Amino acid sequence: MAMLLLALATSAAGAFGGLGGAIILVPVLVLTGMPAAQAAPLGLLSVASGSLAAGPTQLAERTVHHRLGVTTETAASAGAVAGALLSGAVGEAFLTRFLAVVALAAAAASALRRDVAGRLIERPPDIDLGEERGSLAGIYPVQDGATPYAATRLPAGLAVMLTAGLVAGMAGASGGFIKTPATTEIMKVPVKVAASTTTFTVGITSAAALIVFAIHGRINLDHAAPVIVGSLVGGQIGARLQARFAPAAVRAALGVVLVVVAGILFVR
Prior knowledge:
By secondary structure, the protein is mostly helical.
């Protein structure tokens, strides 16, 4: 029951704040005494479940760009497999310190996140909102109309996505705290589209790494079930809250928590 409630709370808070619940869940599990090598697969199960839960809400908002997600996911999944393989070859102390660094990076990404200013146009019919088929462009609905956008600098974006996948495979986090800012700052995609597309695709990143963990027998099935159930429910709650409220304050609070957790992990 404790594992289920922990997964539910971290998944809801992570989805609302746009960081993903695993970046909170995995450090907390390590602080309670679980080895980082065992906590990482549980984090990826939380990521995949949260992604599945949030998908319907974000698809209904027309903020997921499928072509962009699939394109960037080719690099992220390759990185995730490499990270999962690498995590089995390094020591527990290294993984714990690496997790602390990832938590600090997530806190920094949360604090520095900003949107991309775009050209405001008259809002078209709902059927024309969202992604443009066959391209990396689209139209993003805003309060006073709509903003067209087009992803740029794809090679640089793919390089960062490879790194995000590597971090996900090693630390058990979604890598979304890297992918979303990269999509916004490097590829010039609006933050809402970037966040929704990232959330929709991190389940694939997680699945790629989980295949490696399953082959190596590193998934604790007794803990896996409550993590999946809790994350499914928490992801839905977080996605609905994100659609109704501005998550900036939640991201700031989560950033403080992550800094504290990282400090504790460093001194353990």
